[in-house]
Design a protein that fits this description.
Blueprint (H helix, E strand, L loop, with lengths): L1 H31 L10 E7 L6 H10 L5 E7 L3 H11 L2 H4 L2 E6 L8 H9 L7 E5 L7 H4 L2 H5 L6 E3 L10 H24 L9 E5 H8 L2
GO molecular function: ceramide glucosyltransferase activity
Protein name: Ceramide glucosyltransferase
Main location: membrane
């Protein structure tokens, strides 16, 4: 049994080292690619919004502050009074209101996926070339978005996923969970990206051409 333990431990360590190597190789490859600043007018951010997060207004405003010409489509439940009030407070700022479209939607039927249900109702409203699906508690790193210039040249069907990074977390146990999530990305998404074997996306943040998104929702 002890011998088996050491064999399994050795295999685990080797796999972790390989994953770490693949992750750094992936970052090196991305850094070497030629990038240009993206045209924000070609992008629309779609955000289903729900109350309950104490940082909701702060996070929504952060994405507006981090961008200049990007359009936003916000999807709010008609019954969610707190979310409605939050959105209305933000719309009072003339610097942001001209970039935001708000759709107030009926409650999601119990048997349906809430995000898919909401997106399906507004996908035809998107007028830009590219769509960003973003959770209401996620904040965009604007500098990283310029990496999309690499994919804009690709005419095949593609989807780019953002990787979550938790910050400003309070509480010991919350920090432990945050550290696990942040470090786990290195050993999962990035290593598999190097091998081109990713089978999943991060549903909190993904980007694709709008024509592909509309094609998906046409079924």
């Amino acid at each position: 049994m002890i011998d088996l333990f050491y064999v399994l431990l050795t295999i685990t360590i080797i796999l972790l080292i390989l994953k770490l190597f693949f992750s750094f190789a992936y970052f090196y490859k991305i850094d070497k690619l030629e990038k240009t600043e993206i045209d924000e007018k070609k992008y629309t951010v779609l955000q289903p919004i729900l109350s309950g997060d104490p940082r909701l207004e702060e996070d929504l405003k952060a994405n507006l502050k981090n961008t200049t010409d990007m359009k936003f489509i916000w999807l709010v439940d008609k019954s969610d009074k707190v979310a409605i009030n939050t959105v209305e407070n933000i719309l009072k700022d003339k610097n942001y209101s001209n970039r935001i479209e708000v759709y107030y939607l009926d409650d999601v039927p119990q048997e349906l996926n809430p995000k898919i249900f909401k997106l399906a109702q507004v996908v035809d409203k998107i007028k830009t070339d590219y769509s960003i699906i973003l959770d209401d508690d996620a904040v965009i790193d604007r500098k990283k978005l310029d990496e999309l210039s690499v994919y804009e040249k690709d005419k095949s069907e593609w989807i780019v996923t953002g990787i979550p990074f938790n910050y400003n977390i309070k509480g010991f146990y919350s920090k432990l969970i945050s550290a696990f999530i942040n470090s786990n990305s290195i050993f999962s998404y990035f290593s598999m990206s190097f091998l081109k074997e990713n089978k999943t996306i991060n549903g909190m943040f993904y980007i694709l051409r709008t024509d592909i998104l509309k094609k998906i929702f046409s079924f």
